[in-house]
Design brief:
Number of strands of chain B: 14
Largest sheet of chain B: 8 strands, parallel
Distance between the termini of chain B: 9 Å
Helix content of chain B: 25-40%
Number of strands of chain A: 16
Low-confidence stretches of chain A: none
Mean pLDDT of chain A: 93
Shape of chain B: globular
Order of helices and strands of chain A: EEHEEEEEEHEEEHEHEEEE
Structural class of chain B: alpha/beta
Mean pLDDT of chain B: 94
Helix content of chain A: 10-25%
Largest sheet of chain A: 7 strands, antiparallel
Strand order of the largest sheet of chain B: 3-14-13-10-9-8-7-4
Largest interface: A-B, 28 and 38 residues
Shape of chain A: globular
Number of helices of chain A: 4
Distance between the termini of chain A: 29 Å
Structural class of chain A: mainly beta
Strand content of chain B: 15-25%
Number of helices of chain B: 8
Oligomer: heterodimer
Order of helices and strands of chain B: EEEEEEHEHEHEHEEEHEHEHH
């Protein structure tokens, strides 16, 4: 973990998102899917930023409209603290990985689809499926950034694409299929997702289903205890124990 | 004029508490001693203030604990933090962090949450035999009256072998400072972050906690100046310090040292920057 300035080397529009390329080799080395940096973007508290694409020399982030990083331009420097937190742990025995996200959180899961992070994909028959939910088809823009081999299941609230209604309706069959599930969604959906896992899987192992929880953070290093997340055996800190937690332990 | 100085926080205590410079982090912001090891140059600091600790483990408050406060009138904004004194209890803290404290290049001051005389005494008793602890900072309940404050401080003073610094609540600091000194405080910290309440829309409830941000500075400085007129002991200035100039304002008002709180979260390097700036740069006239 270090504090350093990163250089925005490129900024391009990617649908409603801005794709910002940050050069920060010392931090990039330690980043992994689900790990993050705290960026000084002018507010009183730093802003957690998750890589959407990892490289040796830096990482890309996908910035939604209105995000404090949306004003970054090529040549701008942004002060970062990181890498921070515990990311997704994909067991080496995994052969069927299920990703679950809404469009707002999908960028956090994108590194899991990146070939450099898929050492386990060398296994014959390894596959990844994505369950993506959105209000309407217009919000499904990020699908075009996904690898072609990825199996995508979509659910839109208005029925304009894919399954009409809640993604939860598609979740049980996919959970039966998967041997590891990584979730980045609105935490309000987590109790229902956890209930489904308990219903359709017999004795799911530790971290069978992992979920991202990102409350507001002050320090990012476990000093202020401001990002408490309630779990089965007490309270853990999103910044150091998480932000990825066992879905079935969340309370 | 240079502010480089050896600072003596407890001139009337047998062991004293000497700092190489007047800059330290605020309790509640720095963790228990190792969290910022890779981000803060501790060697550049006068001391580190770790904790809070309590006699027994505390799970802490239910979320939400951190509520950002929006900027107003072009300011930086701030944050409300309500952690509920989450910590593993003084015994576990000493066991887990005692070695790190012993290796610290800056003196370690442990902040004890003095919620009652028994709690204060229990914590101070456990810490009194720990050589790596150079001093104890005692926090007080924000609503305690003078009699309760005196009882808590007397209990801590009796149990502690190290110098005792008492951190006064912002509201009531002037009314409590003389009581604190009379009860055994070797030094004072003025003041604890003020408490405030916000309505947290996502959970549809009110959350009360401590407030951090630049807006605290004028409140803390005002209170500091009143306290400094009333008591003769060394006083540490604390509240809303986010820059070298903020620190200088407290030192000009008579502070022997200063504590930096929320600014540390945004820029961990600011502690060392403030310490070096105070010790090397001439103060503007």
């Amino acid at each position: 973990m270090i504090q350093t300035d990163a250089l925005a080397t490129d900024v391009e529009t990617s649908g409603p998102f801005a794709r910002v390329v940050l050069a920060a080799p010392t931090i990039a080395l330690g980043l992994a899917p689900g790990r993050f940096v705290l960026a000084d973007l002018g507010g009183y508290l730093r802003t957690p930023i998750f890589p959407a694409w990892l490289e040796d020399e830096g990482f890309d982030v996908l910035i939604p409209p209105g995000h404090p990083a949306a004003t970054l331009r090529p040549g701008d420097e942004v002060n970062l603290i990181g890498p921070l937190g515990q990311g997704f742990e994909i067991p080496t025995t995994t052969s069927r990985l299920l990703l679950v996200a809404d469009t707002a959180h999908l960028p956090v899961l994108l590194p899991l689809t990146q070939s450099r992070n898929r050492v386990f994909q060398k296994k014959p028959g390894f596959s990844i499926a994505l369950l993506l939910s959105a209000p309407t088809v217009a919000e499904l823009y990020l699908i075009r950034l996904l690898p072609p081999a990825l199996e995508v299941h979509t659910a839109t609230a208005d029925g304009s694409a894919g399954h009409g209604g809640s993604a939860l309706n598609l979740f049980p069959d996919l959970v039966r299929w998967a041997d590891c599930v990584c979730i980045a969604d609105d935490p309000a959906t987590y109790p229902a997702l956890a209930e489904t896992v308990r219903e359709v899987r017999v004795g799911p192992g530790h971290r069978f289903a992992q979920a991202l929880v990102v409350p507001p953070m002050a320090c990012g290093v476990g000093a202020c205890h401001g990002c408490g997340v309630e779990v089965a055996r007490g309270t853990k800190l999103a910044c150091t124990d998480g932000p990825v937690f066992d879905l079935l332990e969340l309370r | 004029m240079s502010e480089e100085a050896i600072v003596e926080l407890a001139p009337n205590h047998k062991a004293g508490l000497t700092l190489a410079n007047p800059v330290m982090p605020m309790a509640g912001c720095f963790g228990l001693g190792t969290e910022y090891a890779r981000l803060v140059d501790v060697e550049s600091l006068g001391a580190v203030v770790v904790g809070p600790v309590t006699a027994r483990p505390r799970r802490g408050a239910a979320p939400p604990r951190t509520i950002p406060l929006p900027p107003s009138q072009g300011g930086l904004g701030g944050v409300l933090l309500h952690t509920g004194l989450a910590n593993p209890g003084v015994a576990a803290v000493v066991r887990r962090y005692g070695r790190a404290w012993a290796r610290s290049p800056a003196p370690v001051i442990v902040h004890v949450a003095g919620t009652s005389p028994d709690e204060a005494a229990s914590c101070c008793r456990r810490l009194s035999g720990v050589e790596a602890v150079a001093g104890i900072e005692l926090g007080l309940p924000s609503t305690a009256d003078p009699d309760e404050v005196a009882a808590i401080i007397r209990a801590a003073h009796t149990a502690a072998s190290q110098p005792l610094i008492v951190r006064l609540p912002l509201a009531g600091a002037a009314a409590l400072c003389e009581v604190a000194v009379e009860a055994g405080a070797n030094a004072l910290t003025v003041a604890a972050p003020p408490r405030g309440t916000v309505w947290h829309k996502p959970s549809d409830r009110f959350v009360t906690g401590r407030l951090y941000g630049p807006f605290v500075l004028p409140l803390a400085l005002c209170t500091f100046r009143r306290v400094a007129e009333l008591v003769p002991v060394p006083i540490i200035g604390c509240g809303g310090i986010h820059s070298v100039e903020d620190a200088r304002a407290f030192l000009r008002a008579g502070a022997v040292a200063i504590q930096v709180g929320g600014a540390l979260w945004r820029d961990p390097a600011c502690l060392a920057h403030i310490a070096r700036s105070l010790s090397t740069a001439a103060e503007p006239q």
